[in-house]
Fold each of these.
Amino acid sequence: MRSLIRESLDLLNDGTPFALAVIIGHKGSTPRTSGSKMLVRPNKGISGSIGGGLVEAEVIDVCVDLLDRSRSKTMDFNLNQEIKAGMDMGCGGSLTVWLRSFVPPCPSEQIELWQTLADLEAKGKKALAVTRIAADKTAEISLVLEQGEVAGPGMLPKALIDAAGENRFTGPGPVRQFYGLDEFIIEPLIRPDRLFIFGAGHVGFQLAKMAHLTDFSCVVTDDRAEFANEARFPHAAEIRVLDDFSSAFDGLDIDGNAYIVILTRGHLHDQTVLEQALKTDAAYIGMIGSKKKKKQIYDNLMAKGVAQARLEQVYAPIGLKIKAETPAEIAVSIMGELISVRAENKENPS
């Protein structure tokens, strides 16, 4: 999926008005949590979602009303019985949603900042987007880069810069802060969850399509160019064709936002990839295959010195137990497991 940052940049460059809606606070049971975003166009077309139902419909209407000029607005929602009924879900919490409209002509400096933000996102770099909201509800954005450098028009309070240097704004969602009479919305640039698929066969093909639909940035690796190519994987962020799986992780940056799925065409290749994967900090490592295959590979790796406790952290056989048979069904079971692990990681960050 194209990120909302990249989509916003394209609209800014095209001179097309739009608005962004961001959940900046939530309590209790809500359909979406802080950090959820939605882009709204003049025709009420949207990208992203803040949860659907009556809340989202009302926010869309207000976003369109804001498109007469660039400004911002904050809306609070209590999900009472009336709203809950309209959403058809058992929510009982509250939401704070921040809306900001972008109406041309937009200053070139603002577009340059969004370009910088898109470039940082593409490279997986950290940054903070800090928006100062003035008394007249106009807004100006600045960036606090990883080394503490500030880019943008605004003079940011020293207390905010100090807090950024101490990594106080590294959570999954935006933070609303007041410094003196000024209001600031501070949004961490979160590195996207990345799915590394080793094996571009039938299951890998189906899994990559689901990764695109569920907001994973997907990297596909295989040793067969006829399988691993852009024609088969048009939405993959990267496609890698190797001479040998012994170099499967060369040049890859695997961190706690990485998910590894091993689906190669043979036991030996799976073992080779798994041995390398176990040396990473990936949030998830899963390997396809039977219990017999798992035991054989684990015995081989333990004979090479791999700790049993480390092997027990691998999801194998991979996927949820839904009696999947076809490649698409197996991919569904894997994706269900990935989504579950990702949600647990966001609820309990390490």
Amino acid sequence: MGAYILRRLLLMIPTIIGIMAISFIVIQFAPGGPVEQVIAQLQGQGDTSTGRISGGGSDFQGSQSAAGGSGNGEYRGAQGLDPEFIAKLRKQFGFDKPPLQRFAKMMWDYARFDFGQSYFRDISVIDLIGEKLPVSISLGVWILLLSYAISIPLGIKKAVGDGSQFDVWTSGIIIVAYAVPGFLFGILLIVLFAGGSFFDWFPLRGLVSDNFWSLPWYSKILDYFWHLTLPLISLALAAFATSTLLTKNSFIDEIRKQYVVTARAKGLSERRVLYGHVFRNAMLIIIAGFPAAFITSFFSGSLLIETIFSLDGLGRLGFESVVKRDYPVVFATLYIFSLMGLVVGLVSDLTYTWVDPRIDFERRDV
């Protein structure tokens, strides 16, 4: 197993480099980069005679070109700006270096977890992500636990009673839950329970109340979950539906196999057959989907849900960073969660061997 783990860890290096390289290449052709963003802000102020901006601790002075021509034909909207000012702007953002050199430096910095400074916020990228992470962790982890805690027992019960009245009407509920978008259900919950048109039972803004730190510990717990109730319900629908159907189908496939018939013929109780034999094999496919569920729990629908419930998390940060072309934040979040996905994938494989010791990855031909 040690050789397999080492091989997987080594494979993460070219994988993460490939992911970042593809994204970096795409970004090179994307219009409206950070230099153009600053130029647009300057032009939008209506007074570009000084062209004064501040970013990254540096101030730049740029006067309008006397010729009135393009300061740099490479940038849209740069007409009338001093070419020297544009050159300083390019240097500030690091675009004065060749793309390959910029990519190599970025990967070297990221390997040391040095993500630099945000282009348009006076804060380091790692601190910015740290500020937004509690919201995304709160939504992601609780959604994951909630969906698995409900869907696995429900899926098992539906598999055992396949075709029963309980199976039929719960399937109807699951189909409806899967079909309704989470953000649309979130709006419905706001209208009903967050001061919309009916009741005002739940808050509509933030992860905690303004007086959170002055509350006793038990009130802090209640306040925390009071704010999370509606967002969690909104996000749980699709995850809960998918996991339930996956669990049911997996258990049905196992229940119909010959070893289950043999176990029943030996006189084993139904509970012993189900949880002593079927459960271990049926759960393998659930474990296989855990990495995707883990990563998806941080992103699936989080942008819309965070916007609807005024939660300042990573989904909102990522969207705003893409719009503003804040590339350090975009690439840092991509790197972190790509790395997380690869690590969780390895953990998933190791969990396979824990659930079923018959699986030995080292004996596979790769």
Amino acid sequence: MANANQLVTDLFKSNGIIIPEHRMKLFDRFLQEEQNLAILHQLKKNQDQLMANWKTEDRIAEIVQQPIRIPNATVGKHYAAPFDFEQYGWNDLIAFRIEGLETLGLNYSAENNQLTGVPTQSGDLKFSVHFKVEGQPEEAPFHQKDVLLIINPDPKTLWQNLESDKNDPYWKEDDVTLFSPIGDRHLLVSSKRGRSHATVGSFREDDFAFKELPNGWNVVVVADGAGSAKLARKGSALACAGVVNYFLDPAAVESMAEFDNLVQQHASQTGADTQKNLNRFVYNTLGKAAFQVHKQLESFAKAQEVTLKDLSSTLIFTLFKKYDVGYALLSFGVGDCPIAVLNKDVTEVTLMNWIDVGEFGGGTRFITMPEIFQNEKFATRFGFKLIDNFSYLFMMSDGIYDPKFVVEANLPSIAKWQEFLADLNGQNEGKAAVDLSTTNPDLAAQLSKWMDFWSPGNHDDRSLAIVF
């Protein structure tokens, strides 16, 4: 009764009616009259309903305005993110439906409380949750809550592929992939312009060359022109051609005959002398080749009135020949391009060079640097191995090494090379596979496609040579 008395008192007061003290008994009797009690009951019921309606409307507004943050998605990349009503405190929803996900390539699983799918478009996009809360009648309309989902574009689509200037005097093909017999083996090699160059229409700085030599030797060369050097594309091309031309020279062909005798001596006896003689031969012969390349680059720079630094390029090359006792492999390297040989059953890896990276390597070095030939480490840039057989000889620029091996410490790991072979075989995000079979008619095309693999932050030129 007290509550009813206060309710009517407040109602009268809001309408300008003040009950004086001497009318209070009359007011009490007034409230006890049957017809007024009925009105009072209805008034209380309406008041309760009004408050309930307000709480419902307030709850609806709270849900509509509630900030919901869900992880960003990326076009073309599988997406899975929680979308949990209980986590958002939406336990009082009595009905709902979600609209707009299908157009984004997504769907909602109530069982797993997840948004999943593969987004098909990018942007700051929205989908909507249509809902009813407790307290709403069954026939009440659904209310709409919009949820923002940021879908990033596929980063691959942000890169342009602009043609390089074919009128440039030092222009060369942006992408080259070849498959060729070489000696008693085969060579699969590809060199592709990196996305960072393609997007601005600049040139491929990497290069390669190979040749079967008249004396049974075979040479494979890979060079990586420095991106900061304005004529690096020419420097790498000159370096590769210079190595091949050196070993084609009749004097070099004749001098290599000495190696045949040294190998036979080495195979028939043990001792430090034969090993020393072999090492001396490798040092003298390959050292002359490397130095001649350096001098050719120096002469070209002088003739074109550019600096030698403008032609900066790394350089690696390998010569191999089959003997009765196995394969002889000779190597040279300057820069950050590795050379590796895998044994026949792919259980061991032999590194044929060390690479100029990191604190102890002192950073990348180039064949254009005169100090390379004066440094006390110059003799360690050469390699010689005599092995029974091998499955693969790999040579690559850092455009392959960086994304696939990441750090120098991974190069001696046969597990990483087995992983690399699996990658070539199709175990990669793009499912690009290279069937390393000499009878595969699509071999070059397969490697060319594989070379386009996506690796965030790794958009340099890529060169890979495989002898198998």
